[in-house]
Amino acid sequence: MDIEARHSELRTRLDVLGFGHPLPLSAIGIVSAILDDLIQTSEKLKCANQRIEQLHQEKSAWELGVEPYKCDNSRLLAECNALHLELIKQQDKHILANTELRSRVRSLQADKKQLEEKCLAAECKIRELQTGSSESVKSRKDTANKQRKPFISTVRAGTFYQPPKCCEQGGMQQPGGMPPTCRCPCNQMKQVDVLHEVERLRVETQNQQGVIDALKNQVGGGGGNELFY
Q1: Burial class for 202, CB neighbours closer than 10 Å (0-12, 13-18, 19+)
Q2: CA distance 154 to 5
Q3: Whole-model pTM above 0.70?
Q4: pLDDT 10s per residue in the chain (229 long)?
Q5: Most buried of 62, 165, 175, 215 (most Cβ within 10 A)?
Q6: What does residue 127 show for φ and ψ, rounded to 5 degrees?
Q7: What string of H, E and C letters represents the secondary structure of the chain?
Q8: Cα-based angle 27, 29, 35 (whole degrees, multiple of 5)
Q9: What torsion do the CA atoms of 179, 184, 189, 192 make, to the nearest 10 degrees?
Q10: Where in this chain does the entry annotate a coiled-coil region (predicted)?
Q11: How many other C-beta atoms lie within 10 A of the C-beta of residue 167?
């Protein structure tokens, strides 16, 4: 294509675009290159504007879709805060209950120790009574064998036999520093009462031990419930 044809075509394109300035022949090359760049840039700008418009529409659609989630998020945050406060209260209650259970365990352990001491004291008393009773029986047998005399009845008509009140006279001192014991059968009744007391103390001690074990299990089980956030 000759220069005149290129000049005429370029002039027409410039007139269409509104550029009516003079076009010298020496500037045909640079003006043609600039015009091509301008057209290409305009097309890219148009595509970019279309893409921007499309993105704006998508953004509006996303905002409409996110709106319900915003409401749910506010509700979930409120529920989370309420649950957190409830969790703190439960932790405080757990700590308080754990402290009370530990205090009760210590109290029951002290009661158990006292009951065990009472049991030991009662068992010692039983052994002393049994020892005194056996010594008393042996002493009565020896005395009866040594001082056996013919039986002479002194019962008179119209009178009743009064058994000796040995309990009121006090016991006899046993050899070896043993406590005085009574020679009458009431001593056996005392032994039975002491045995009953020992049995009662043993049962009560076992019950206290069962309660202590149960409380220890509660304290140990409560500590295993860990909380996660």
Answers
A1: middle
A2: 179
A3: no
A4: 577 787 788 778 777 778 777 777 777 788 888 888 888 998 999 999 999 999 999 998 888 888 888 888 888 999 999 999 999 999 999 998 888 888 888 888 888 888 888 888 888 888 888 887 777 777 766 666 665 555 444 444 444 444 444 444 444 444 444 445 454 555 555 666 777 777 778 777 877 777 787 777 767 665 444 443 3
A5: 215
A6: -60, -40
A7: CCHHHHHHHHHHHHHHHCCCCCCCHHHHHHHHHHHHHHHHHHHHHHHHHHHHHHHHHHHHHHHHHHHHHHHHHHHHHHHHHHHHHHHHHHHHHHHHHHHHHHHHHHHHHHHHHHHHHHHHHHHHHHHHHHHHHHHHHHHHHHHHHHCCCCCCCCCCCCCCCCCCCHHHHCCECCHHHCCCECCCCHHHHHHHHHHHHHHHHHHHHHHHHHHHHHHHHHHHHHHCCCCCC
A8: 95
A9: 50
A10: 98-132
A11: 13
Total number of residues shown for the chain: 229
Instruction: Say which amino acid occupies 147.
Output: Q
Tokens describing residue 194: 């002491």
Structure tokens at 165: 């009140």
